[in-house]
Amino acid sequence: MTDLDRRRFLTAAALGGATIVGASALGALDADAAFATTRSTLDPAIPSSVFAEGRIGAMDSGLLHVAGSWGETHHVQLTNATSVWKLRPTSWTEIEVGDGMYGRGVRMPDGTIAADAVWINIVNLECTLQGIDRDRIEVAHDQHRVVGRLVPGTTLASYGGGPLTADLSRLRIGQAVRMLGAWRPADDSVDVARLTVGV
Fold first, then answer.
1. In CATH, what number is assigned to the domain containing residue 177?
2. What is the pLDDT of residues 38-88, one digit of tens each?
């Protein structure tokens, strides 16, 4: 598989002014919320939230120019209320040109999306565990091999619906796992935030 194919595969799998939208109006801000569908908001003055996704081609004063996966272009304005996730909650200073992005917000009259949340390089893959090492795992997803980097203090696991734990000793070759993490465009690996075992 070429680098471009891997990038397409992984990206498919992850304002100081007029309108500031509170997080409670549009929904949750955690990593799982990135995979929610467009829905009505909790604020009757806002008809619905919108999602945008793609690769960031340029950034200008908090405005992200995003090339969507289907040839469309999005302009996503970060606000002082925008939540940013990149492996963990962080700030807009961690966003880089070339990153993949999912963003949720409100469409403004000029077509720009005022974002209440953006998730950078997020991937959520159903996999089979194929290799385990001290600082990495290897998984198979849809006939592709993906390296997952285990991040001390960040990577957690849940076994059989149980609570999240830092104990990874129960991982076994051949297990079905859901891997939530942040894609690394430089080498196509994934920094692992969470492994859900027994999906």
1. 2.40.50.140
2. 444 445 555 578 899 999 999 998 899 999 989 999 999 998 889 999 998
Is there a contact between 22 and 116 (Cβ–Cβ < 8 Å)?
Answer: yes
CA angle 108, 90, 12 (to 5 degrees): 65
Whether 17 and 78 map to the same domain: the answer is: yes
Distance of CA 177 to the CA centre of its chain: 17
Q: What is the pLDDT of residues 74-117, one digit of tens each?
A: 999 998 889 999 998 998 889 999 999 999 999 998 999 999 89
| pTM reported for the whole predicted model | 0.76
Q: Residue 56: which domain range?
A: 3-120
Count of structural domains, the chain: 2
Same domain, 151 and 66: no
- Give dist(CA 32, CA 18) in Å, integer: 28
The two structure tokens encoding residue 33:
């919320």
Give the whole-angstrom CA distance, residue 65 versus residue 88. 23
Phi, psi dihedrals of residue 75, rounded to the nearest 5°: -115, 110
User: Among 120, 149, 183, which residue terminates a domain?
Assistant: 120
